[in-house]
Amino acid sequence: MRVRRYMRVWAFLAIVPVVLSVTGCWSRREIEDIGFALSIGVDHAAEEGEIMITVHIAKPFAISTGVTGAVDEKPFWQVSSTGHTVFEAWRNLRQQCPRRPLLHHSRFIVFGEEFARGGIREAIDFFSREGEVRETNTVVVAKGVKASEVVWNEFELERMPAEGALGIMKIAVQELSTTVMVTLNDFLQMLETEGHEATTSRAELVRRPPSEDPRGELKRETISVSGRETGAAAFKGDKLVGWLDKTQTRGLQWVKGKVRSGIIVIEQPEEENKLASIEILRADSTVTPKISNGHPSILIRVGALGNLGEVQEYFDPMESQETWTSMERRMAEVIRHEIEAALDIAKLEFDSDIFGFGAEICRKYPKEWTDLKDKWDEEFPKLDVEIEVEASLRRSGLTRRSMRVVRNEGG
Asked: Which of 2, 69, 116, 397 could form a disulfide with 111 if both were Cys (CB 3.0 to 4.6 A apart)?
């Protein structure tokens, strides 16, 4: 009996610490009290020295189609807040938001052009420290407008603007290769890497016929302002220095080996004023740095495989080997032109090594880079870059001749 009593006492003493450690969900957040921010824009505020953030917040009760009339209500809310820092502006948002805003589900961090040209180091520090912000957020710079205007964008095929913008960006990256998709993690790494300047996606507005101010409306009949993702924004340090158009951006992507697909248009051989379209099927690249007598140089090798997608004049692939060779040569010339266009604007206008050539030199020649890094701004614009492109067209049994149009004369 005495043994059993001791066992019960020891069992009780063992259970007490466990019970005391289970304190319940003391930090729980009820979903009814949360506002999910899907994108956040950063601009200069009207008050000098202050920052304005514009946040796109989802309205779950308006997304559900089970509630009568909910489908007609706008499923998101845009709201702006100001502060001396991004963190203060974010906290001040709670003066207007009836739910606690959270950034766990945010997709985009958008900077207005004016703000980005002044430097974003202090603002980006908040996003790198804030535990709610995922490093998979896409970093975007708004061309010619404030970030708040981009956050207000809407898209016909998606109820949530952030989802529409993300869909457009993925298509542009995967099927056109005319923009870049840079996450917060990618951006931070580029900012901290020696010999590699940063790039981000470029957002532009597509304006429709004017309508009333969209803020405060619960229901939208027409979309007056939409957006598109095209090209890229180039940085030097933490400051925006300029823009790359679609051709220059794909040139950048050729060098970085990130071209996934796209269309190359060439002049059709032996046919005046007729064009042929080639679909990019696969591409790769290598960047090889060299140092000779203290002078650095870069060799870029690009390989691309394409598929003949369209010709404007009759073409039989079995008739002439020379025609195939000519098209491959013209395809290679277009790729070379795109790379040169990106190199020219980066070297002559931006003076910004957005290709990461300096990082490649540092990786292969760390001792020599010690002497080069302090004067890389002077070396990069005069850097000798050699480009080698090998382009080929897929020639399978599925490649067909063009339809021959028979022209009948007479009445």
From this structure: 116
